[in-house]
Design brief:
With about 300 residues, the chain is mostly beta strands. The chain has no helices and 18 strands. The strands form five sheets. Strands 6, 7, 8, 10, 11, 12, 13 and 17 form an eight-stranded antiparallel β-sheet that branches. The chain has a four-stranded mixed β-sheet with strand order 2-4-5-18, with no helix packed on it. Strands 1-3 form a two-stranded parallel ribbon. The radius of gyration is 24 Å and the shape is elongated.
Amino acid sequence: MLKGRIEALGGAGDMSGHGGGGSGGRVAVYHQSNDSDLPYLGRFLAFGGAVGQYAEAGGAGTAYVKNEREPKATLIVDNNGQRPVDSFMHNIGYRLDFSTAGNIGKASSFKARAGSSRTVSTSVRPYNRGYSRYCSNYPLPNHASYYLLSHMFDQTMSSSRNRIFVADKQTTVVTLNLGQRYNINRIRVFPACDFPSRFRVTLGVNKQAGEEIPSSRFYNHNGNQGYIEPASNCAIGSFTDVVVGHLPADSITIEIQGLRAFCHQYFASLSEVEVYAGGQSEKERYLHRQLQVSSLVATSNAVIIL
């Protein structure tokens, strides 16, 4: 007999910090017979990567074993006893599309794709000066495709200058007019690592007669009116979730303040912004798959016979 392990394991996280583990992979074995001089009696392993005390392990992968001469198969979902942080599936809803159909250049406002009444504007225009390699009033390289407002909604998650928004002053206010009333779940904000900036988010409501809701609210991860500070070790693709909690809004404003000096000048900047709405009912919980990976397995050890 043959013993051993066939593995597709997730990568380990930061064992001393808060970095999560990678999810397990997929193993698939198709055979016509398990009868031989040396049958395989080993294990199939596809669990998520281990983590330290403060992070979440990767989700379980799958091992699928199918005898093609039999009608049944075996599906193994085993996360090696590692539990998700939460016992439920997070549903952040669906992402509102603020992307543009074409190039808007260095404009300070634009309308989202055709058929949408959503608009985006900034109180300070994108950076659009000349460039000098010497410390002067022209500290940043520039091009017609650099620093555009529309870059915050292009879904590239890039830190390149032609994929981030940079305002021409230290502070700007970006306003998202939603075009109609939405119940907002969260705003996901991606930093531009070369231009560290802090920010805060406000929901705006165009109050109708008889509505007993505030016309504006501040939100950040600490639940107060202060700014959310950038991480000291920024990584491309990292983000901050501003959890709103399914509250109504007609508009969203994001105040941005640059913190890094370029020739004694500061510039407000972000890489990407995503807005998620709806999806709070039990039925909707499984419609939108922007879910935390390790929460996809409800039990840590399971063997399912199909």
